[in-house]
Amino acid sequence: MSSSLDSLAVLFPFAASSGDVTVRVAVSFLAEQSDPSAGRWFWSYHIRIENRGKRSVQLLSRHWNIRDGRGDVHEVIGDGVVGEMPLIAPGASFDYVSGCPLSTPTGSMAGTYQMVDEDGRAFDAAIPKFALIGPVA
Fold first, then answer.
1. How far apart are CA 9 and CA 51, in angstroms?
2. CB atoms within 10 A of CB 39
3. pLDDT tens per residue across span 86-120
């Protein structure tokens, strides 16, 4: 088990656990979708939501705080992720990839997923803070 956890830490360097749910994040700068001369930098992020509990959980909504390099915070609140409200069985995980544009070469993201377990208990799962860092000009 330790070696698989070590591998996950390499693939997903950012992680936060809330009860039986762990959210892991990997982030990549996308040079091909960025245009620094026009003030546009773009990152993709890969999220893995793991259910280590004995009950199924469902992601209902998300709440992101996206901070740009000037310190301005952009809040994003919405239903589900990538058009889905995934139901995650015990021992299973759900992965998705999305993106974030900024008008600065650096920033950060963090937030929460609003979730419910199969008994109807609502809870927040923390999304770990991760840095958005573009290349040095």
1. 17
2. 11
3. 999 999 999 999 999 999 999 999 999 999 999 99
